[in-house]
Amino acid sequence: MPPGEFYKQRIEALQKDLSLLHKKKSNLAWLRFASISGIIAAWYFLIPFGLWYVLVPAFLLMILFTRLVFADIKNKSAIEHQKILVSINEDEIKALNHHYHHFADGREFIPKEHFYANDLDIFGDASLYQYMNRTGSEMGSNTLATWLSNPASPEVILQRQEAVKELVLQTAWRQHLQAFGAAEKIQKVTQDRLQDWFTEDDRFINNRSWKIIRYLVPAMMLTVIVLNITDVLNNYFRNYCLLASALLAFYISKKVTPLHNQVSKMTGELEVLSDSIRLIEQTEFRSALLQDLQHQFKKQQGKASAQLYQLKKILERLDLRFNFCSIYSSQHYSSMGPAAGNGPGEMEKTEP
Prior knowledge:
mainly alpha; 13 helices; disordered C terminus
């Protein structure tokens, strides 16, 4: 089949799948609306029969609503992935018609002096690099530039040719891998930030004082709130405890800020890495080069994709907790701090 016809048929198939995903999105939206309506109806019609007649169906419908939300998030990701696949095939049709200037041209890799790069137009506009470049990361772009700038040995060339012969028959697999990388380009600075973080001394996890604070302070605050609700402790004491916890949160946020700044805003790139590596891990390769590359992701304890996914979740929780800690400390300190100087009576007036 001619390449142009192949890409056109591929686009048609992808657009059909995309239509089904959009229809699924609409159905999930109606199901979420129905579950919320069911919860409201349960409270309205069943409350005369008793609270338990309301709580049980409301709880089950809330579980259903939560599952629908997660299904919708997954479906939205599938829609975005499908759109990127369509775009990839449209770009390939453009390239077949000699319109490939929307690909990166590798201008930054043009050497000042090289024994063949400039004469053969290896880099730059309408270059060999631009014609063949489909990389999705800064490190991949650098690797391609290095391969084109430095002749490989005959053994390495034969290994690469064998790998290419195998991958040329797996167009769908290649495009899925390319689509993962196109979702968010991985920068080398992210790799450097992670490596710097891994080599730093551990200041929190194995610190006994932080472990005690982690469990003691929440337990104390919950105890104070419960005792205040039951009128064992008055509002004055509760407010002083809230102020103290706000000051402690402010102090902790100052300690965590350097770490947060070092590793924040990289969860998207980690997700791309995890998805890409998982696709590689789940594929069976025959060529020696591809098997060696795949083995690098499996030689450690556990799969690399699962470990990257766990790291992504840890960083997401760090972002969430840090932002909550900052908001909590700033809001409570600003609202309760001035009242502290005016005495307990003023504190009582500032209560919501």
